Amino acid sequence: MDIKQLRYFVEVARREHISDAALELNIAQSAISRQITQLEKELGVTLFKRSGRNIILTVEGRQLLSQATQILELMDKTIHSFQQHVSHNQQTIYIGYEESDASQMILPLIQTFEQQSNSTMIPQLTKHDKLLDQILSNQLDLAITEFTPVLERETHLRVMPLFEENYYMYVPKSHPLAMTVHPPLSQFTNQSLYCLEPMTSSIKSKLIEKTKAQVRMISDMKLAQHILSHNKGFIISSQNSLLYDHVNWTKIPLNHTELKRMLCVVMRKDNKKNDINIAWNLICTLLNKSTIY
């Protein structure tokens, strides 16, 4: 006896007609008849008898119907209970982030989180000025963003600084500034400056303020290399740029200047999702300074 046989039996008993039960179950009449016959052989009783065009339950059939109904109801309740439990535990954690050196760690973060939890993680690249609103409105569970005084003032938010994002100035080797140690940003006044995307608006604004120069945005790595190789300007990029060292240019660290920012992770204190703390702790572990560099 198996669950399929009991379901077929109960459906036929309720409808008193094999063809009607077959339509409801969307299977062939012969399949139902075969299962009912096997069930009768296994139990050693006759479950149905004919009454005109219909079939009705025998005494043994009525007894089995009562017990089979209870078995199927209990099984359905058990399945539903476990499905609810799984659904409750398998939640989705929505994480927003802005372009930064942390972006490269989003995939390892998702992979590690989903290995260690019952939930899934959905990433969303978002502009800096949108992240806080989306956290406050519960559109996002977590955000990796720039640490600002505004975040510090939000008492119902949990905020943890992660690492300082620094920048480099790439200078053609033939230029006199290539030999400068710890140059102030003001020393790059009147130079042709290019920011290699991704570059946040706050960093670009600081650069313009301190250099008083016109800053152009570019996104193509080969174009950046062309500018440097042909002495057409300087390139500003983050520490994890793919603009590698080269014989034609020098990389000058700018961590002694104002051109830096602190990245942090933020969430609502009242976020009660099951695996939110696993996600929080993983971010704090994976996105520390030793990992990013």
Q: What gap, in angstroms, lies between the N and C termini? A: 63 Å
CATH architecture of the largest domain: 3-Layer(aba) Sandwich
| Helix/strand order | HHHEEHEHEHEHEEHEHEEEHH
* Total number of distinct structural domains: 3
* Average residue-wise pLDDT: 86
* CATH uppermost class of the largest domain: Alpha Beta
Question: Compute the gyration radius: what is it?
Answer: 34 Å
Query: What fold name goes in the CATH topology slot of the largest domain?
Result: D-Maltodextrin-Binding Protein, domain 2
What does this structure look like?
Belongs to the LysR transcriptional regulatory family. Pfam families: HTH_1 (PF00126), LysR_substrate (PF03466). The protein is α/β, with parallel strands linked by helices and 293 residues long. The longest helix has 31 residues, at 59-89. The chain starts with a helix and ends with a helix. α1 (3-15) packs across α2 (18-25) and α5 (106-116) packs across α10 (276-286). 43% of the residues lie in helices and 23% in strands. It is elongated and about 105 Å long. The chain is built from eleven helices and eleven strands. It has three domains: 1-82, Orthogonal Bundle (Arc Repressor Mutant, subunit A); 91-161 and 262-286, D-Maltodextrin-Binding Protein, domain 2 (3-Layer(aba) Sandwich); 162-258, 3-Layer(aba) Sandwich (D-Maltodextrin-Binding Protein, domain 2). The model has no long low-confidence stretch (mean pLDDT 86). Strands 3, 4, 5, 6, 7, 8, 9, 10 and 11 form a nine-stranded mixed sheet that branches.
